[in-house]
Amino acid sequence: MTDAAPAPAPRKNRQWIRQAVDFGALAAFMVSYFVTRDMILATWVLVGASALALVVGYAVERRFAPLPLITGLFALVFGLLTIFTHDDLFVKLKLTVQNGLLAVVLLGSIPLKKYPFKALLGSAIRVNDAAWRTLTLRYGLYFLTVAVLNEVFRSPQAVTAIWHALGRDTPNPNDVWTGFRGVLWIAASVFGLSQVPLIMRNMIKEEPPGPISPDPGL
43: closest CA among 55, 213, 51? Predict the structure, then answer.
Protein backbone atom coordinates (compact mmCIF):
# COMPACT_ATOMS: atom_id res chain seq x y z
CA MET A 1 0.00 0.00 0.00
CA THR A 2 1.31 3.45 -0.81
CA ASP A 3 0.16 6.87 0.31
CA ALA A 4 1.56 8.62 -2.74
CA ALA A 5 -0.99 10.90 -4.36
CA PRO A 6 -1.44 10.93 -8.13
CA ALA A 7 1.01 13.33 -9.77
CA PRO A 8 -0.60 16.53 -11.04
CA ALA A 9 -0.31 17.47 -14.70
CA PRO A 10 3.14 18.98 -15.26
CA ARG A 11 3.11 22.77 -15.25
CA LYS A 12 5.85 22.76 -17.86
CA ASN A 13 3.55 21.02 -20.34
CA ARG A 14 0.85 23.62 -19.73
CA GLN A 15 3.39 26.41 -20.30
CA TRP A 16 4.39 25.07 -23.70
CA ILE A 17 0.75 24.53 -24.66
CA ARG A 18 0.10 28.15 -23.67
CA GLN A 19 3.03 29.30 -25.83
CA ALA A 20 1.60 27.43 -28.84
CA VAL A 21 -1.87 28.88 -28.21
CA ASP A 22 -0.53 32.41 -27.76
CA PHE A 23 1.29 32.35 -31.11
CA GLY A 24 -1.45 30.48 -32.98
CA ALA A 25 -3.41 33.59 -33.98
CA LEU A 26 -0.30 35.31 -35.31
CA ALA A 27 0.72 32.24 -37.31
CA ALA A 28 -2.76 31.94 -38.81
CA PHE A 29 -2.75 35.63 -39.75
CA MET A 30 0.64 35.44 -41.45
CA VAL A 31 -0.16 32.29 -43.42
CA SER A 32 -3.49 33.74 -44.53
CA TYR A 33 -1.90 37.00 -45.69
CA PHE A 34 0.97 35.44 -47.65
CA VAL A 35 -1.42 32.98 -49.33
CA THR A 36 -4.05 35.58 -50.29
CA ARG A 37 -2.09 38.89 -50.18
CA ASP A 38 -5.34 40.33 -48.76
CA MET A 39 -4.84 42.13 -45.44
CA ILE A 40 -8.57 42.45 -44.70
CA LEU A 41 -9.21 38.74 -45.30
CA ALA A 42 -6.18 37.90 -43.16
CA THR A 43 -7.63 40.09 -40.42
CA TRP A 44 -10.83 38.02 -40.49
CA VAL A 45 -8.64 34.99 -39.85
CA LEU A 46 -6.84 36.86 -37.06
CA VAL A 47 -10.08 37.73 -35.28
CA GLY A 48 -11.34 34.15 -35.46
CA ALA A 49 -7.99 32.69 -34.41
CA SER A 50 -7.66 35.17 -31.53
CA ALA A 51 -11.08 34.24 -30.20
CA LEU A 52 -10.22 30.53 -30.53
CA ALA A 53 -6.88 31.09 -28.77
CA LEU A 54 -8.65 32.68 -25.80
CA VAL A 55 -11.07 29.74 -25.58
CA VAL A 56 -8.31 27.12 -25.82
CA GLY A 57 -6.14 29.04 -23.35
CA TYR A 58 -9.01 29.06 -20.87
CA ALA A 59 -9.62 25.33 -21.39
CA VAL A 60 -5.94 24.57 -20.69
CA GLU A 61 -5.45 26.95 -17.75
CA ARG A 62 -9.02 27.01 -16.37
CA ARG A 63 -8.56 30.77 -16.25
CA PHE A 64 -7.60 33.65 -18.54
CA ALA A 65 -3.86 34.28 -18.15
CA PRO A 66 -3.47 38.10 -17.91
CA LEU A 67 -0.91 38.83 -20.65
CA PRO A 68 -2.44 36.54 -23.31
CA LEU A 69 -5.85 37.97 -22.40
CA ILE A 70 -4.59 41.53 -22.94
CA THR A 71 -2.99 40.76 -26.30
CA GLY A 72 -5.98 38.67 -27.39
CA LEU A 73 -8.46 41.44 -26.58
CA PHE A 74 -6.32 44.04 -28.36
CA ALA A 75 -6.22 41.76 -31.42
CA LEU A 76 -10.00 41.35 -31.36
CA VAL A 77 -10.73 45.07 -30.92
CA PHE A 78 -8.29 46.34 -33.55
CA GLY A 79 -9.09 43.44 -35.87
CA LEU A 80 -12.82 44.22 -35.76
CA LEU A 81 -12.09 47.92 -36.37
CA THR A 82 -10.11 46.90 -39.47
CA ILE A 83 -12.95 44.72 -40.73
CA PHE A 84 -15.71 47.25 -40.09
CA THR A 85 -13.80 50.20 -41.62
CA HIS A 86 -12.04 48.14 -44.31
CA ASP A 87 -8.85 49.99 -43.34
CA ASP A 88 -5.78 47.96 -42.39
CA LEU A 89 -4.37 50.92 -40.45
CA PHE A 90 -6.03 49.60 -37.29
CA VAL A 91 -4.57 46.09 -37.35
CA LYS A 92 -1.13 47.63 -37.86
CA LEU A 93 -1.64 50.30 -35.22
CA LYS A 94 -2.59 47.70 -32.61
CA LEU A 95 1.02 46.78 -31.96
CA THR A 96 2.01 50.40 -31.32
CA VAL A 97 -0.89 51.12 -28.97
CA GLN A 98 -0.62 47.86 -27.03
CA ASN A 99 3.15 47.94 -26.56
CA GLY A 100 3.26 51.68 -25.98
CA LEU A 101 0.71 51.44 -23.17
CA LEU A 102 2.52 48.49 -21.59
CA ALA A 103 5.84 50.36 -21.79
CA VAL A 104 4.37 53.46 -20.11
CA VAL A 105 2.80 51.39 -17.32
CA LEU A 106 5.89 49.28 -16.66
CA LEU A 107 8.55 51.99 -16.90
CA GLY A 108 6.37 54.46 -15.01
CA SER A 109 5.92 51.98 -12.16
CA ILE A 110 9.65 51.63 -11.45
CA PRO A 111 10.16 54.99 -9.64
CA LEU A 112 7.08 54.16 -7.56
CA LYS A 113 8.59 50.76 -6.65
CA LYS A 114 5.44 49.08 -7.90
CA TYR A 115 5.70 46.09 -10.20
CA PRO A 116 2.48 45.51 -12.19
CA PHE A 117 4.40 42.91 -14.19
CA LYS A 118 4.26 40.74 -11.07
CA ALA A 119 0.47 40.83 -11.26
CA LEU A 120 0.61 39.81 -14.93
CA LEU A 121 3.09 36.95 -14.60
CA GLY A 122 3.24 36.17 -10.89
CA SER A 123 1.26 32.96 -11.35
CA ALA A 124 3.71 31.73 -13.98
CA ILE A 125 7.01 32.51 -12.25
CA ARG A 126 7.94 33.09 -8.62
CA VAL A 127 10.97 35.32 -8.10
CA ASN A 128 12.08 37.92 -5.56
CA ASP A 129 11.30 41.63 -5.83
CA ALA A 130 14.79 42.50 -7.12
CA ALA A 131 14.20 40.20 -10.10
CA TRP A 132 10.74 41.68 -10.70
CA ARG A 133 12.31 45.15 -10.78
CA THR A 134 14.86 44.04 -13.38
CA LEU A 135 12.24 42.19 -15.43
CA THR A 136 9.95 45.23 -15.31
CA LEU A 137 12.72 47.46 -16.68
CA ARG A 138 13.76 45.00 -19.39
CA TYR A 139 10.24 44.28 -20.56
CA GLY A 140 9.30 47.95 -20.41
CA LEU A 141 12.22 48.80 -22.71
CA TYR A 142 11.35 45.86 -24.95
CA PHE A 143 7.74 47.02 -25.33
CA LEU A 144 8.91 50.58 -26.04
CA THR A 145 11.32 49.34 -28.72
CA VAL A 146 8.59 47.28 -30.38
CA ALA A 147 6.21 50.25 -30.43
CA VAL A 148 8.83 52.47 -32.08
CA LEU A 149 9.86 49.83 -34.64
CA ASN A 150 6.24 49.15 -35.51
CA GLU A 151 5.73 52.83 -36.28
CA VAL A 152 8.62 52.59 -38.73
CA PHE A 153 7.60 49.36 -40.44
CA ARG A 154 3.89 50.20 -40.70
CA SER A 155 4.72 53.44 -42.56
CA PRO A 156 4.90 52.99 -46.36
CA GLN A 157 6.97 56.19 -46.61
CA ALA A 158 9.52 55.02 -44.04
CA VAL A 159 9.75 51.54 -45.55
CA THR A 160 10.21 52.95 -49.06
CA ALA A 161 12.92 55.35 -47.85
CA ILE A 162 14.79 52.51 -46.09
CA TRP A 163 14.59 50.21 -49.11
CA HIS A 164 15.76 52.97 -51.48
CA ALA A 165 18.64 53.81 -49.14
CA LEU A 166 19.66 50.15 -49.38
CA GLY A 167 19.52 50.35 -53.18
CA ARG A 168 16.44 48.16 -53.48
CA ASP A 169 13.20 48.58 -55.40
CA THR A 170 10.06 49.94 -53.76
CA PRO A 171 8.53 47.07 -51.75
CA ASN A 172 4.95 46.11 -51.02
CA PRO A 173 4.40 47.77 -47.59
CA ASN A 174 2.02 45.03 -46.42
CA ASP A 175 4.60 42.35 -47.28
CA VAL A 176 7.24 44.22 -45.30
CA TRP A 177 5.04 44.78 -42.27
CA THR A 178 3.82 41.18 -42.16
CA GLY A 179 7.41 39.99 -42.52
CA PHE A 180 8.38 42.31 -39.66
CA ARG A 181 5.73 40.60 -37.51
CA GLY A 182 7.36 37.27 -38.27
CA VAL A 183 10.79 38.59 -37.28
CA LEU A 184 9.26 40.07 -34.13
CA TRP A 185 7.76 36.66 -33.33
CA ILE A 186 11.27 35.18 -33.31
CA ALA A 187 12.69 38.15 -31.38
CA ALA A 188 9.97 37.80 -28.73
CA SER A 189 10.84 34.13 -28.24
CA VAL A 190 14.56 34.87 -28.01
CA PHE A 191 13.93 37.71 -25.57
CA GLY A 192 11.75 35.50 -23.40
CA LEU A 193 14.40 32.77 -23.34
CA SER A 194 17.12 35.30 -22.49
CA GLN A 195 15.30 36.12 -19.24
CA VAL A 196 15.38 32.52 -17.98
CA PRO A 197 18.87 32.79 -16.37
CA LEU A 198 17.75 35.83 -14.36
CA ILE A 199 14.58 34.02 -13.31
CA MET A 200 16.50 30.86 -12.37
CA ARG A 201 18.94 32.80 -10.18
CA ASN A 202 16.15 34.53 -8.30
CA MET A 203 13.45 31.89 -8.05
CA ILE A 204 11.80 31.52 -4.68
CA LYS A 205 11.11 27.84 -5.32
CA GLU A 206 9.26 25.38 -7.55
CA GLU A 207 10.29 24.04 -10.94
CA PRO A 208 12.08 26.04 -13.64
CA PRO A 209 9.72 28.15 -15.77
CA GLY A 210 9.28 27.94 -19.49
CA PRO A 211 10.07 30.97 -21.63
CA ILE A 212 7.61 33.84 -21.35
CA SER A 213 7.29 35.86 -24.52
CA PRO A 214 6.76 39.60 -24.11
CA ASP A 215 4.44 39.83 -27.11
CA PRO A 216 2.77 36.44 -27.64
CA GLY A 217 0.20 37.39 -30.22
CA LEU A 218 -0.80 39.86 -32.90
Answer: 51
Residue type, 132: W
Q: Is the pTM of this model over 0.90?
A: no
CA 33, CA 140: separation in Å to the nearest integer? Answer: 30
Please answer whether residues 193 and 208 qualify as being in contact, where contact means their C-beta atoms are separated by less than 8 angstroms. no
pLDDT digits (tens, 9 = 90+) for 75-107: 888 989 999 999 999 999 999 999 999 999 999
CB neighbourhood size of 10 (10 A): 10
Half-sphere exposure of 83 (CA within 13 A, CB side): 14
* Residues 73, 54: Cα–Cα separation, whole Å: 9
Q: Cα separation of 66 and 51, whole Å?
A: 15
Closest CA to 88 of 49, 143, 33: 33
Helix (H) or strand (E) holding 28: helix 11-36
Residue 127 main-chain phi, psi, to 5 deg: -130, 170
On whether the CB atoms of residues 217 and 71 are closer than 8 A, the answer is yes
